[in-house]
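Something for you to look into today, if you have time. What I am after is a single protein written out in full by you. I want to see for myself how the chain folds. Could you add the entry underneath, on a fresh line?
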Amino acid sequence: MMQNQTEIGERLHRRIGKRTTTQRRLDIQPAKRHEMVIAANILRSSAEWYRPFLHEKDMAQHEVDESWGEKEFSRRQFYIGRSEGAPVGIVSTQSVGDMTYIGYIYVYDHQTGKGFGPQLLKHARDVAWQEGKRGMVLIAHPKAFWATRSYRRFGFECIATTRAQVLDWRGGWLKPYYEEGFELYQYLF
């Protein structure tokens, strides 16, 4: 029986509670420009999970090419999380007044369910706190339950569900990043 990528992703994420391995601590460091190829590979690794519900024009935000890294590196700060020296995930932060925008938080598809995502979120939170921010925001698709569930567990709250509401945040600041159907989540200190 053929299964789509979303069903495979759901199966992987249902196993999270069944894992008995100890969580490995990540070494999270700022990415260097030449390491953006690693970030792109991590992002692409789960792109197919989004295909069943993303608007086709937005798939380009997940099936990124080499030019993506150059553009994004100049726009925001990327961090790469490594476990035992191997890259496993990325998170990016971008200052928006008194808030930090998390534009990307991804873990390699074969590394999900190991506690790496929350460690990356904690790192972003620590960076935002050290910069004197009031909190963090991010956008996510409601059908990407593996992501939204993790964000809610961490303490994010959904504050905007419609396109108009999301794009109204900070006078349209999110317009260049918005993907159809995405909702806005906020975490306040």
About this structure: Helices lie at 5-14, 36-45, 47-50, 66-75, 116-130, 145-154, 163-168. The chain has a mean pLDDT of 91. The first strand starts at residue 27 and ends at 30. The chain is about 35% helix and 25% strand.
